[in-house]
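Hello,

Our lab assistant flagged a job as stuck in the queue for most of the afternoon. It eventually completed. Since we weren't sure the result was trustworthy after the delay, we are filing this so someone can double-check. Below is the sequence as submitted and the structure that was eventually returned. Let us know if re-running is recommended.
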Amino acid sequence: MGHKGLYFCIVPSGKYRMAVSMIIEGLILKGIGGFYYVETTDGIFECRARGKFRKDKITPLAGDHVTIDAAEDLTGFVTLIHTRKNYLMRPPVANVDHLFIICSLKDPKPDTYMIDKTVAAAELREIEPVIVITKTDFSECRDSAERLQAIYQKAGIACHSVSSITGEGTKAVQAYMEGGISALTGNSGAGKSTLLNAIFPDFQLKTGEISQKLGRGRHTTREVELHKIGLGAYVADTPGFSSYDVEHSELTDKSKLIYGFRDMMRYFGECKFTSCTHTCEKGCAVLEAVEKGSISRSRWNSYHQMFNEVKDRKQWQINKNV
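-- returned structure --
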């Protein structure tokens, strides 16, 4: 329960009526049309945001922990957005704990460059990446799954093969989702919805029930929405965003790029030159590790390609993308 206080409001007759105001904390499940639906221990409140947020050019996001000034009729105002540990711009969601990168073995085939780019973007946002390989039911794809899994296991990144049909591997993925906020990304057809329904058989039913509570019938535009899947556990429904927009992430500064590659970071500071870019220099510890097989060449190829894409960017261009 929150802290309660009294305030007075004018009813249509012109008389004053006493009401109860509660200052409570909660989690934004969804924001749409200027309304924010905040889950609290006292229920879900439909809130407006105070004007100060617009003035400061701050937009409340699904996933934000907030303080609200709430009324007994389950309405209120968002008065404070607590410090975010991270946030994504596209799709707009805050305080993500795990980003599940869903890649299928066929239709479409996996693209290690895009996987690595998404992993790096997550790492730079301090979001734990988890790679999920789907469509392992096809026998001809088994070898591809093992090769892909070996690359990321060597890098120290969680990577699991799953079958949404047999249920193989789904328990391991579910374990990551049992605390905090999870978001899923991947090409259309990679199997994001199928995976969720395999892990949570009644997910579609819960989605429909919660959506009615959050006023979907009142609004037509769909936005990011958090669905509760357990105690303190939520998964973000990101309609219209088949893939996490890495172009609007922090992959713009060449000096920070290596922080998105944890397997390369193991050798940080061991290079002969402090200005080493880890692309071509003699005495580079990273390049030596690639030659020895300690770092997968495909991972370094992705880093090299990403470095070449941003190496000529000026500081003003970097600031514009932040």
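-- support follow-up --
The delay was a queue issue, not a problem with the job. The result is valid. The CA atoms of residues 85 and 180 lie 12 Å apart. Confidence is low (pLDDT under 50) at residues 6-11, 205-211, 214-221.
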